[in-house]
Amino acid sequence: MKNILRLRLVIASLLMLFTLESVASDHAASNYTIGLAVWSGYPECVQGFKDALANKGLNAGKNLTYLQGEVGANKSLQAQVAQQFSAKNVDLVFSLTTPGTTIMKNIMADTTPIVFSIVTYPADSGLIESFEYSGNNLVGTSNYVPLSHSIKLLLAVRPETKTVAIFHREGEPNSKIQTANLYRFFKKKKIKVIDVEANSILDLTSKALALVSQADAFITTTDTLMQSGGEQALIKLSLAHKIPILSSNKKGIEQGSTFGVVADFYQLGNIAGNMAANILLNKVLPEALQSKLQQPPTYLFNKHSMQQLGITVPAHVDFTIQWTQ
User: Fold this and answer.
1) Measured CA distances, 193 to 188, 203, 211, 311 (Å)
2) Which domain covers residue 119, as residue numbers?
């Protein structure tokens, strides 16, 4: 009887070992295809995504193929990209920005996992139900930074601020929500807000120029206009007219905006990449995962712009500062 039990245990162990080896072999042998819908580019975020997958054993040219969608902040173009991904029957889509991800969601089959990043308000914009439960085939990372950080930073460095101008793209849900939330925060501090909607860089520049004598600070949102040249246009006015910019974009601060509390796109892409690996390798549904923010955010200052505007950081600030040239 004991010998029979031992034999059964040996057989069970061998079967378990065979099963585990088969699963590992299946993972190694599988060749996944990921569609990259990157809107206007965002190379740091894409690199973070790819690095996370490589760390999980998914490497381009071996067991993973990246299908690069055409780059361009154009809705018609990105609709074509989505249709190409659908025709190729990709295993997963990595999608960037709110408008870009909205297009992917509307065109791709709801059985295709979509992992997004650089989407500021994924729930409020209707892409998912909530951070905790998407309720669909989407999950990802948000570049949202709690606005209390930004208000805290501005008032610590420029306590005399009475009026701010917030710039965002006309009609983009992401930045309209951000502007409305900023307005509520500033209203509590009794600071006047000028809401500036623009439909192009030329329109943005014209409206900003008209406000240089009224606003104590310019504020940029995380929308596609700011990230596609709009912030650079504001930086020129900022330096020429000595108006600080409280930026929502890391790249904007690196290019010359004065300061801001931002999310790091590489980190956001890396977190999203780990989600994608979990979906592909472990067959986890997106709705079983939680969307995430970067914790903690980054307090970033541009040293050159601070010097040009004659602004110094008070010694009593209680947050960790990072500097960029």
Assistant:
1) 11, 19, 12, 22
2) 31-144+265-293
CA 127, CA 251: separation in Å to the nearest integer?
25
Is the peptide bond between 173 and the residue preceding it cis, with omega within 30 degrees of 0? no
Q: Are residues 217 and 316 both part of a single domain?
A: yes
Q: Report how far apart, in Å, the C-alpha atoms of 234 and of each of 43, 130, 312, 325 are.
A: 23, 34, 21, 18
Q: Indicate whether 84 and 134 sit together in one domain.
A: yes
Looking at residue 176, which CATH number applies to its domain?
Answer: 3.40.50.2300
Q: Residue 16: which pLDDT band, with cuts at 50, 70 and 90? A: very low
Is 21 within a domain? no
pTM over 0.85: no
Q: Are residues 91 and 164 in the same domain?
A: no
Number of domains in the chain: 2
Interior angle at CA 208, CA 205 and CA 214, nearest 5: 165
DSSP H or E run through 36: strand 32-37
Cα 72 to Cα 38, 42, 166, 289, distances in angstroms: 8, 11, 25, 29
62 and 180 together in one domain: no
CB 77 within 8 A of CB 104: no
Dihedral over Cα of 193, 197, 201, 204: its sign: negative
Are both 136 and 236 inside the same structural domain? no
Using the predicted structure, report yes or no on whether residue 319 has a pLDDT greater than 60.
Answer: yes
pLDDT, one tens digit per residue, over 217-269 is: 999 998 889 989 999 999 999 999 999 999 989 999 999 999 999 999 999 99
Provide mean pLDDT across the span 293-307.
93
Residue 110, Cα to own-chain centre: how many angstroms?
Answer: 22
Task: Determine the Cα–Cα distance for residues 93 and 171; give it in Å rounded to an integer.
Answer: 25
